[in-house]
Each structure stands twice: as structure tokens, then as C-alpha cells.
Request: fold
Amino acid sequence: MTSPNLMSFGKGSGCGCKMPPEALKTMLSGLLCNNSVENVVVGNDLSDDCSVYDLGNGQYLLQTVDFFTPMINDPFIFGSAAAANALSDIWAMGGKPIMANAVFSWPSELPIEMGREVLHGARDICRQAGVALAGGHTIDGREPLFGLSVTGLATPQTLKRNAGAQPGDVILLSKPLGVGMLAAAYKRGTADENQQIALQTTLVKLNNGGEQLGKLAAVHAMTDVTGFGLAGHLLEMMRAAGCGAEISEALLPKIPEALPLAASFVLPDNATRNWNAYEKELQMNNAAAFPWVADPQTNGGLLMAVGPDCVDSVLEMLPECSVIGTFTEKQKIPVLVIN
Reply:
């Protein structure tokens, strides 16, 4: 018996189903929370990956929630990818995830057995990360949605925000780009076997190196690259720090199987949405970079601002990282230069 097409039940795809940046900005107008609230160290005013609460005992409590629609028809991989993506928010702030709860919408038209596979995939990833999948909440919804609410711990010394970049800092990225393009080809039925394998492998790769990066003082800022693409999340870091930045298309790490897709502009629709949201803050000197900087990532890599004297230490700790550019002098209107 042929299994139902999981992706046909959702209009989005992975982190590409995020609300458009401008719409999100409008929705959050007047609703921002910052550290003026007692014991809240980090709110949502600077687009950080987690909210942070001071426990008063030398430890910070980190909290995040992340969920999305399927980007692949395999329910086990869908659950695995969603779990890895949610855990990444804790690691992106230098924290240690300790517990998770599932957020799950499952249409009654889909087999319960497929839903169980989603949960099995999430549990497998949580076990790899040493995190307890302790509970959750489920609804009968029109679209399959899955993700986690994750609790983590950090200290004032290990917490990394996206606001700490300094002029002269080197920009590092821990994973290659191209997930959105691979997912688009998969959804359209044009991905070959190697592209499908590359998509699955990248989707479930953990960003757990972020916990160790939190211990390095010279890692001044960190976030992870997800639905707004490399340019979108780098611009968030730039705005928070007031810096400019310059990156090189030639230095960007790229999933090899996505290269022909970029050359043919096989992009998800949300790549254009991303571009329209931030093109006024970009100086694009190399059009070949467009597919790579606008492509929405799901469970993408860690994006770091690292002091130049510590780059070798980071590369030794995480050899998969790539140097992609530098942060430049503070500017009234931060501009990302793409060569």
C-alpha cells in the first residue's frame, strides 16, 4: 500500500514556512519584551534565538519553541529534522538543552502510524543530544506541524547573543548552504537520488558544537541560519550590533548536490520573499551569490562572529566551519556587502 504524500498536506516547507519578515515585524509591533522585565535577561527585541531567565544562582534558563510543516515525505526524517532544528536554538546561544516537549498537529486523514514515526524521529534526535523528550501537546489540525519547546541552561559567561559582533570579527558558518533548494527540487519531484540523500543528511545534522563554542570568550556573537536565509540572519546580527559586514560568494560553503539547482535557479518561493524583505540593506556585487544568501535553510548552520585571534581555535574545535567574511565598522544603517 502506498503511503500518503506527507508534503501535499502543507503549503510551506520546513523553516521556509516562517511568516514573512515584514509581516512578522508588523505583528510584533508594540509586543516586544526586553530585559526591563524582572529576571528576564533576553527577550524578543533583538531577534535572539531563545528567551533567557536569570535563575539567581549563577545559571540562566533558556527557552525556545520551533515547529514547521514537512519538507520531506519520510515521517521519521521530518520528526528528526524538526527536533534537530528546535534544539539548535539552544546551542546557537551557547547553551545546553536539557528537556523538550513536542508541539504536534496531525490531520485525521493521515495514518496514526505515520504520526508515530514523526515522534520516533524526534525521540531519536533527542537521545543523540542527551535531551529528555518529556511531554508535549497534540491537536487534530489541517496541516501536519511538528516541533519542540526546548529548555536549556547557560551561565552569564557562556551565553551567546546575536548582538555582540565587533568590527574586525571574522564571520564563520558551520554548515553548507542549499537545503532550501534541495527541498524545492524534492517537493517538485525533480531531485535525483544523491540530492535526496544530501537533503536528508543535512536536515538531521546536529549543531551541538554550539555548547562548546559558548565557552570561548572570543566568540562574540552567534545565531543559526534558518528560514530567513544567510543574508536575513546575518543582517539580524548586524542590526543588533550596529556593524556592517562583507562576505564573499566564493567562500560560502555549498552543498555540492545543490550546485546545479542554484545554476538553474531552482529556488523555493520564499527565497524571493526573503530577498524582497532585505534587498535595500544589501550591496550585491556578485549576482551568483543570490541563490545562496536568500535560500531559506532548515536546521542550518551556526553563524558566528569570532575575534580574529581565535579563528584557528574554532576551526580546530569544529573543522566543518568555513570563514565567509568579516564584520566592518559600525554604521548608522548596516549594509551587507556581497562580493
Notes: The chain has a mean pLDDT of 92. The chain has two domains: 6-154, 170-338. The two ends are 51 Å apart (CA to CA). The first helix runs from residue 21 to 28.
